[in-house]
Amino acid sequence: MATTMTKEKNQPMQAAQPEVKTRLLSQRPGAFSSFLGRAPFWSLRDEMDQLLSRFSDDWSSGWMTQGFEASLDLSETDDKIEVHLDVPGIKPEEITVEVSGNQLRITGERKEDREEKGKTYHRVERHSGSFSRTVTLPCEVKEPAIEACCDNGVLTISLPKAESVKAHKVTVKPKAK
Predict the structure, then answer these.
(1) What's the rounded Cα separation, in Å, for the pair 80 and 99?
(2) CA geometry: angle at 173 spanning 168 and 177, to 5°?
(3) What percent of the residues of the chain are helix, what percent strand, and what percent coil, each to the nearest 5?
(4) For residue 162, which of 50, 79, 140, 155 is within the disulfide window of CB 3.0 to 4.6 Å?
(5) pLDDT tens digits, residue range 91-132?
(6) C-beta of residue 64 within 8 angstroms of C-beta of residue 121
(7) Residue 32: helix, strand or coil by DSSP?
(8) 27: which DSSP letter?
(9) Cα 65 to chain center, whole Å?
(10) pTM for the whole structure
């Protein structure tokens, strides 16, 4: 690029560049999609959505997980904390419940019971393997009084609250005159 000095301020002056008018291909209505046959960004987005959907389905179906995730509900009343855990197909003797401080840990294992001879599986959604759930309890509990029972594939754990955390009602009396 050639520079010249002007007499007025002894400042270098840039040589004039020819003005080029360009428009991006995407700024012309329909030009980009007609150029490539269809809107490439929409197509790419659709393909990515399909890929992520397939990956999500595969992830949740267990190819990257060990065992399965047991669903859990935790509720509280004035006297106790109650936990309900879905454990279909697991025998009560294959479940372990441990409480340490304010941590509740539930572990178990569902055994695989498929017979492979002469069968072709087209879909397998029932997972086998071990699971482990650890939950922080909202308060202290009476550890010796904890009860757990399993009925129709639902484990119910009843954790009585410690006396120190139970709500105590105080009767309000009118002021004596």
Answers:
(1) 14
(2) 155
(3) 20, 30, 45
(4) 140
(5) 999 999 999 988 999 999 887 776 777 888 788 777 778 888
(6) no
(7) helix
(8) G
(9) 13
(10) 0.56
